UniProtKB/TrEMBL annotation:
Name of the featured protein: BAG domain-containing protein
Biological source species: Lentinula raphanica
Annotated Ubiquitin-like domain residues: 16-61
Biological process annotations from GO: protein stabilization
Keyword field: Chaperone
An example Gene Ontology CC term for this record: cytosol
Entries under Pfam families matching the protein: BAG (PF02179), ubiquitin (PF00240)
Keyword Chaperone: yes
């Protein structure tokens, strides 16, 4: 996690991506920024057009794989089982560090049929109140689904049994978080 202050909301998204690229050591073209479940696509659009507010959370999705051109001494980079497992672990770590705390906080404040106390707007760790309950549910669902898609997009060769097992385990874990969210949402007081 990193926090930074944007002094000028008219700066283009490209500047924010450059900052994230420097911070994360990911290539600029491999970075996707996500805010409130939406991918921030237009690099030339000002940050203000994305309705970023103080203490906003932006998820960074990127690939740490580097490619070496064919003219390099080693030729093109070959993806290994170890690098694939590392990519799976990075995605799972991202879910655990950025989504699970928000999920746990949301589940604690969601009124259920067995505990019909009205939900209170409880501040998150940054001190900002939760968005309305439906928006937070939609955001968490979307982010978990995007994580599942990211895991699904990781290509694992048939021979890589350990990588296949790691991806299967990671998908089950993220799907478990999504199931918990959906179960709690379906048993909430309406």
């Amino acid at each position: 996690r990193v926090a930074f202050e944007v002094q000028d909301p008219s700066i283009p998204l490209r500047v924010l991506k450059e900052y994230v690229s420097e911070w994360s050591h990911l290539s600029l073209d491999s970075i996707k920024l996500i805010h409130s479940g939406a991918v921030l696509k237009d690099d030339n659009a000002p940050l203000s057009s994305y309705r970023l507010r103080p203490n906003a959370t932006i998820q960074v999705v990127g690939s740490s794989e580097t490619t070496i051109s064919a003219s390099s001494p080693g030729g093109p980079t070959q993806k290994s089982e170890t690098s694939t497992i590392s990519q799976i672990h990075k995605q799972l770590t991202l879910v655990r560090s950025s989504l699970v705390p928000s999920l746990e906080n949301f589940l604690r404040t969601l009124p259920t049929i067995s505990d019909p106390q009205p939900a209170v707007s409880v501040p998150d760790l940054s001190g900002t109140p939760f968005p309305p309950i439906q928006k937070e549910h939609a955001r968490l669902s979307e982010m978990l689904l995007q994580s599942l898609l990211s895991l699904d997009a990781i290509i694992v060769d048939r021979e890589w049994e350990q990588a296949r097992q790691e991806r299967k385990t990671a998908v089950k874990e993220v799907q478990g978080y999504l199931d918990r969210l959906d179960d709690a949402w379906n048993s909430r007081v309406r």
